[in-house]
Amino acid sequence: MVKPFCLSFLLLFFFNAFAQLPVARDTISVLENNYVLKMPWANGINFSNVSNLDLNGDGKKDLVVFDRSNYSLGHFRCFINVGTPGQVKYKADPGLSYYLPQAYNWALFLDYNCDGKEDLFTSTTSGIKVFKNTSNAVNLLQFTLAKTLLYSDYDTTANYYPVNLYASPIGVPGISDIDNDGDLDILTFAPGGYSMEYHKNMSKEKYGHCDSLNYELQEHCWGKVIENGCNVSFYSCANRLQKDSSSLLAWQKVAHSGSCLMCFDSDGDGDKDLIMGDVSCHSVQYLHNTGTIPAALITDTTKLYPNYPNKSNSAQVNINNFPCTYYADVDGDGKKDLLATPNVNNSENYKSLWYYRNASLTNTVNFQFVKNNLLQDEMIEVGENSFPLVFDYNADGKKDLLIGNYGYYVNTNLNARLTLYENTGTTSVPVYSLITRDYCSLSSQTISINNVMPTAGDVDNDGDVDICFGTSSGQIHWLKNIAGAGNVCSFVLLSNPFQITTNSGVAAPQLFDLDNDQKLDLLIGTKDGRIAFYKNTLIGTTPSFSLITNFLGNMDVKGNQNLFGLDGFAAPYFYSEGPQVKALVGSISGNIFQFSVPPNGSGTYTLLSNAVNGYNEGGQSTPCYEDINNDGKRDLILGNLSGGLSYFSSTSTMVDIKNNTTTELEHLISVFPNPTNDLITISISQLDFKSLHLSLYDATGTELLRRESAETSFELDLSTYVKGFYFIRLHFLSDSKNYQLTKKIILR
Question: What does the alpha-carbon distance between residue 407 and residue 430 come to, in Å, rounded to a whole number?
Answer without folding.
Answer: 27
